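Suppose you are handed only two things: the residues of a chain and a line of SMILES describing NAP. What would the bound structure be? This form records exactly that question and the answer produced for it, so the two can be stored side by side and reused later without any lookup.

QUESTION INPUTS
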Amino acid sequence: MTDSSEFKMDYNYLGRTGLQVSNLCLGTMTFGQSSFQGGLPGQCDEELSHQILNRYVELGGNFIDTADIYSLGNSESIIGNWLKQQQRDKYILATKVFFWRVNPDINRQGLTRRHIVQSIEESLERLQTDYVDLYQMHCWDNATPIRETLLTFNDLIRCGKIRHAGCSNVTGWQLQQIVDLNRELNLNPFISLQQQYSLATRYDEFESFNVCKLNGIAVLPWSALKGGALSGKYKRGERPVAGRIGWVAQDEAQRGNQTFPSWDKLEGSDKIWNTIWKLEEIGKAKGKSVAQVAIRWLLQRDIVSSVIIGVRNLKQLNDNAVASSGWKLTKEEMQELNDVSMPEIPYPYEQIWRQNDYKNNKYLPSYFVDDMTD
Ligand SMILES: NC(=O)c1ccc[n+]([C@@H]2O[C@H](COP(=O)([O-])OP(=O)(O)OC[C@H]3O[C@@H](n4cnc5c(N)ncnc54)[C@H](OP(=O)(O)O)[C@@H]3O)[C@@H](O)[C@H]2O)c1
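ANSWER OUTPUT
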């Protein structure tokens, strides 16, 4: 893609808010020096990060996702330095709170009222703005009563520091508890769920996405390419030495976890390779890249408002952007991708689907998560 005047991203409503966001959100975990021991590869300095932001806007994007923890605050600072040269109200800006590893302090983490209030003040300072559009709890906190967290988020909405609240990395019952308690206490509802979701990770179709569907909560998938594995650039049997998938974390706890999948786990999975081969086949037939087809599959899931893309250069951004607009996967192509990537369905989901969809003799997760192929 060279001439951006011919190309503009499509827009969707962000859940039930009435806010319109580009269907690709720019993830900024790659901005600034990595916060991980040994340094995650593929980080962008400030100059390249600003080029990526400028190009994203040129392509029609208006939705930017960051977090206090990304590059230990530097991702927010880099965005802030860019934002001050922009018209602030053109952008839907999202950040998160939970983890904080600068000047470790036992009370500088999690979702206590104390930590949330301190964190939003610091995020706003780094972002050089007086509000964020979407403030997300980055993970469920087992230690803090969820009531305290929800009341605090609501107070931040009331005093104008955040426009909306959302969450990330929660289970189905936790999300339902958030929905119910917000309703019971007459607080502003959470509007979005940011969850790892791709053709390689579909577990949330069993539970959380049904809560989203029933309550109009926007799903914002992260790791749409499973850290780059679904870009088609890796070949089975050829261990990568570069890039995110080739990275081996120094910290053992970080090795091969769900956020940073290890090559060994990926390489051993027939399902992932069969999925990549299917993506290649469909991509070839349609003249699209593997990454574009993988992202397009997410965009055609009816619960998804915007897919968070992560890039480390302009080439990757230009590639991924093509998924946004101007073409679609057919119903048959969606079905082929659903089938090849189908996770094993655990009890009791399998039994419930089988019993409830006996008429169609079809007991797939897509019984709940529909393909929007109109
Ligand atoms: N809520 C959460 O807990 C959470 C967790 C993680 C991320 N996120 C958000 O989601 C965003 C995206 O996550 P992610 O980085 O894991 O996404 P991803 O799309 O799965 O992986 C991005 C990486 O894949 C490679 N890549 C991307 N496009 C490519 C292309 N077209 N061709 C070849 N390689 C390509 C690049 O790494 P290499 O070039 O190094 O291979 C890039 O850094 C983050 O920036 C962040 O905003 C949220």
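WHAT STANDS OUT: The domain at 10-367 is CATH 3.20.20.100 (TIM Barrel). The chain has one domain: 10-367.
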